[in-house]
Amino acid sequence: MIENSTPWIILIVYVITLLLIDFFILHKKNRDTSVKRAIFETIFFVTNALLFTGFIYWFYDASMIENVDNLKPFDAVVKYLTGYIIELSLSVDNLFVIAIIFTSFKIPRQFQHNLLFLGILGAIVFRAILISVGLVLIHKIHGMNIVFGLFLLFTALKMLKKEAEHSPEVEKPKGLLKFFRFSNDLHGGKYIAKENNKTVFTALAGALITIELTDLLFALDSIPAIFAVTTDPFIVYSSNIFAIMGLRSLYFFLSNMLEKFVFLKYSVFAILLFVSLKLMTVSFLEIPEWFSLLFIGVSLGIGIYISTVVIKQK
């Protein structure tokens, strides 16, 4: 039991260390994140996600973890990388939504990192719960992989329909207004403040709640997607966490370019479609992970290339 808990302890310590470095070193004060700084931070988090593959190989080579899928060390690394790239790919839509949330609540850039940092902390907890529930369902209920696959297919078609209608909208949490007092004021970066001698939640609190709720919705897509790759709890959770930890810096890196790379949404649609079909056919058709990685990489590459060509022609 102690042996099996060691990888989880190392993962938790690694994640906490990165979060402390991010909060106390990379972002000591609330300030606008420049593109140059965002590029550096993106490279930092991606590099650490890749470095963790060394731990993955070690854990499975030394049989330190409960290997539910009987994976060889190299296969475990490939599945971790595939899950990581899938999560990053599906996060492209999340980045668009985050941009809309910040615009909707009129959040200045100097407060955006702090909001995203708190959002990540919530996501780590909520995704652990959703992953645990998903794994129980897929192991206990026969044919659950088909249900997840159909759900992803529905999500992909709905996303394509929204793109055709050009109507990306995010609603403020109006239902919460019935129970809490919300203010449109930032109150100097506070989340709770006093207005007319009454305690109110500021615009920052409203944006944070909305980010947490939308992340839960996106998790309903991305978590079933990674089940098409593996149902190994350690790989599913570690790849998910490393991907969402790098989401903040990736947002600031892409925030000025999101509207330019318009065809990336079609790449995400293709990836969702592929993953949903893989999940539904997993019981009788084995698609090698190298092909999955290749398909995801080519899909993203085509989306970026076509977007770049269109930009040059304008």
Describe this structure in words.
It is a single chain. This protein has helices spanning 2-26, 35-61, 73-104, 109-140, 144-165, 203-227, 233-245, 247-254, 264-280, 289-313; strands spanning 192-195, 198-201. It is mostly helical and 314 residues long. The protein has one domain (2-313). Helix 1 packs parallel to helix 7 (233-245) and helix 6 (203-227) packs across helix 9 (264-280). The radius of gyration is 20 Å and the shape is globular. It starts with a helix and ends with a helix. The model has no long low-confidence stretch (mean pLDDT 77).
Judged by helices, strands and strand pairing, the structural class is mainly alpha
Order of strands across the main sheet = 1-2
Cα distance, first to last residue? 61 Å
Question: What percentage of amino acids are in beta strands?
Answer: under 5%
Number of strands: 2
Number of helices: 10
Rounded mean pLDDT score: 77
Uncertain segments are none
Helix and strand element order = HHHHHEEHHHHH
**Secondary structure: helix percent:** over 70%
Describe the structure in brief:
This protein has 314 residues and is an all-alpha fold. It is built from 10 helices and 2 strands; from the N terminus they run αααααββααααα. Strands 1-2 form a two-stranded antiparallel ribbon.
